[in-house]
Amino acid sequence: MKSIPRISTRGYYDLTTGKTLKSNSYYLYPKKDFKNLFGTKELTIMIHGLRNNNAGAMAKVSLAKNRLRKLGYLYPVIGFSYDSNTTGAHLIKHAKRSLAAGQIIAKKNGRHLGKFIEDFKLVSPKTKIRLLGHSLGSQVILSTLEYLAKKKKNCGIVDSAYLFGASITQDIPSSKKYGKIIQNVLDKKIVNYYAPTDEVLSWANNEKYVKGPLGLNGAIGKPVSKYRQKLVKPKNHRFASYAAVLNSFS
């Protein structure tokens, strides 16, 4: 199997607490493959959710790549792989602690992905970058935009972002703070694919682990103009199910 190019921060965070273990920016694998991406017209980065080890992360990139190919998208699709396989995530009794650690790690990873985007755009300024995030990956995207928003030169640096089964809260697209970040950092739009039938988000909402997930019922309030949302009916919360109901990528 051909190796999938990925930006990785595996091993940078403690899987039980979310504590920082390494302060490096990121590493690229295989490094030589990234040189081939310079000068490409577009690039999509897939960011996985909770309970994914490195193999799981790569499987999500393959799923995204195959679905986008079917929709006529022929540009490179690469992965962002981070420590989301937090301790005890598969056990109900540890679910809350595990999700909390995952959220801490996802927030911290905004700096890493943001730094990669800045570095890549320095070498390949005309490449459009799209971000695609599933579940907890939506938090990585939000934190990435927040990191990039700190510098004026990053205005419009990311072309667009796409969220599937997003675990961030429903007030974000209309909030003063994040609304401004979305408007400034994204050149075109952020699209939220939401599903009121999503069993995992529904459970997280009922248990108050995530209060009002954006991916469950869409946004509340008056979202900013670059925000879009689409109602979808995936079979379940898995990324494969969301990819199956994606019918366009523009």
Automatic annotation (TrEMBL):
InterPro entries for the chain: AB_hydrolase_fold (IPR029058), DUF726 (IPR007941)
Location relative to the cell: Membrane
Protein name: DUF726 domain-containing protein
Membrane topology designation: Multi-pass membrane protein
Ranges that cross the membrane: none
Keyword Flavoprotein among UniProt keywords: no
GO CC annotations, alphabetized: membrane
Upper classification of the organism: Archaea, Nitrososphaerota, Nitrososphaeria, Nitrosopumilales, Nitrosopumilaceae
Keyword annotations: Membrane, Transmembrane, Transmembrane helix
